[in-house]
Fold this protein.
Amino acid sequence: MKEGAIEISTIFLLIEREEARVQFVANDGDLALLYDLIEPYLKVSKISNISHSIWTIYVIPELVPDGCKLKEITEDSPDGPGTRVFMNGEARVMAINQSDHKWRILYTLRMIRNLLRWQLYEQGKLFMHGGLAGVGRKGVAYLGGKKSGKTSSILALLNYGAHYCSNDDLTFLVEETEVRALGWPRSLCIRKDSLYALQAVNPHYVRMIEELKHPSNEHVEHNTEGEQYRKSLGLYFYPKEIAIASGQRIEPEVPLSMIVFPKFIGREGKKAYLERINPGEALELLEQNLEQYPEKYCGFLGKYFQEPNNNFYEQLTLLSRNIPCYRLFQTFDALDDGAKLITGEVEKFKD
């Protein structure tokens, strides 16, 4: 501990997802808040000693042992104060440099998630641009670009009993007998027009606006540039707030049963319809929605991880052949109809 620093009671934790691991050194006050954000996605256990072969995150710089030389790294953020960390990549040590308690916890969560995802990327797992819901134990992945209807479609599906898994952060583990889809502890940004479009079938999202705890909502409220950002993108919900608003539980992982590529259409003709696509077309769409890297922010982490040896194309080909893929066409006011179509289709699949 640095000379003159206040003595702080610390706890050592090991945080895991699949074969990825991160150590976390925290004080008592921060631990409960962080755990509330990562549960039930990540496995957390107390440990007595730190292993130098595993990445370690210290919740504040004062907890870093003497002799570990750190370099400050900063990165701008559109929805909050810039990321500030002290880091020694060779020693696999990072300390969060953020005095505001709310942001310190959130940035700690982000760094834990980023380091775990980079490790899984190094192991050859697939990272896709999409979200995930579970209809029973059947995973439905929605893939597509911005404003394609992924988030709105997932929220509509929750109204029919689906469980919330993830939005924007999605990992596929392609195995011999099945594909497992993993969600991640990440906030969900819901556009205001989507919130009000869903109000007729579930008014709780709108009612919860004043109760949301994500600090980005408060930050952009008092920031001129951020105010425009908020108007265009919406409000941030933590996964547990989505669970409360929808009345459904969080499911961190489900077997993948169906892949949907949503698209909004004009108001002429059918309001919502579903089309099964062949493996060749599915492969093209899967390639378009494969994330080149596991995280678009905090690019400074990338140089500490190796490019995977796995053939992503091979895995995508298996997905296109073994997992039913569909295009979902729907108008913006027919999200409910789209959800009914998806629910009806996925219920045809065997468990």
Summary: The CA atoms of residues 75 and 298 lie 7 Å apart.
